[in-house]
Amino acid sequence: MTRLFAFLALLLPLVACGGGDSTPTPPPAAEAPAAEPATPAHVALFGTLPAPTGAWSQDVVDLGRMLYFEPRLSKNHDISCASCHPLDRFGQDGLATSPGHAGRHGGRNSPTTFHASLHFAQFWDGRSPNLVDQAKGPILNPVEMARTDGAQVVDTLASIPEYVEAFKKAFPSRTPAMTFDTVATAIAAFEEGLLTPSRFDAYLGGDVSALNAAERAGLDLFVSTGCTACHAGPAIGGAMYQKLGLVEPYPTEDVGRAAVTGRDAEKFVFKVPSLRNIARTGPYLHDGSIAKLEDMVSIMGKHQLGKQLSDDEVGSIVAFLGSLTGEVDPEYTRKPELPANGPTTPKPDPS
Q1: Computed over its alpha carbons, how large is the radius of gyration of the chain?
Q2: How far apart are CA 82 and CA 59, in angstroms?
Q3: Domains in the chain, ordered, with CATH?
Q4: Backbone phi and psi for residue 164, each to the nearest 5 degrees, phi listed first
Q5: Sequence-separated (6 or more) residues with CB below 8 Å from residue 76
Q6: Which one of 36, 70, 144, 331 is the catalytic residue?
Q7: What is the pLDDT of residues 255-283, one digit of tens each?
Q8: Does the annotation count 144 as an active-site position?
Q9: Of the four listed, 15, 208, 209, 271, which is most buried by Cβ atoms within 10 Å?
Q10: CA–CA distance from 164 to each of 20, 44, 206 (Å)?
Q11: pTM for the full model?
């Protein structure tokens, strides 16, 4: 009997634990490694997306928004800034080159207006030093809005009573309040607010979960490959000129900045574009000749860095670039109601 009790004592723990099942208990699942925060080196490389300077009153910004969408700035009253830079498409019309007056096309791609205020110069060749000067360029370009001079623009706007009052309200200390310079200033003031904070900004600000593992790996590869030699700072570009075909010549007839400076040393040199919203602002390059972002990354690796990137490497970098797509403020970018013509407003001129 004593031996029976001893046997039962040994058996009871096995029954309580399902001793009849010989399957071993699986070990607990391993926890996923914690996401790594942005390194101080990353923060130093890209900085922080700045807010608008606040240098302009709300009246100036509101007037600039109207003028951004105003087709009567053009000779035939059919082209506005928003025609080539639609704000509901991240400031880029998706065309290789944009149609202007009488349907004519220029030779260069229309870059996005988002984050243009962060660039150290404007246009692909840097011929304008700031947004105010840049805003005048398309208006007076015969292939774009085709105005002969700024006086034509002022005469048209001055014939519209609501604009007369809007300029007086926006520029109360200027006499006259409405000039070609204040037209451009208002447009530039509005464009200064065209900023799109992205998940990458949240990541740099300390939100580790803002980027997934593939995007973080792409960021590391973007840096280690050498892309940040040109694409750094808050705009992730837009801060320097660089030769297209720095390591291996790139086939193009556009001499770039040399057409502005007359210097042979600046042949094929262009302003480095911003990469913010780059996944949504193709086609790419100064001539809009590259349709796919993957192809653009591969071309940059070959011609700018002398590296033949694998498909996996290209895909990794493209994954990171997708995190640069930001959020467009629908209220700020919404088209306002534009005033009606006055009795003396000039007629459209299709010639």
Answers
A1: 29
A2: 20
A3: 41-50+197-322 (1.10.760.10), 58-195 (1.10.760.10)
A4: -55, -45
A5: 101, 102, 146, 348, 349, 350
A6: 144
A7: 999 999 999 999 999 999 999 999 999 99
A8: yes
A9: 271
A10: 92, 46, 47
A11: 0.90
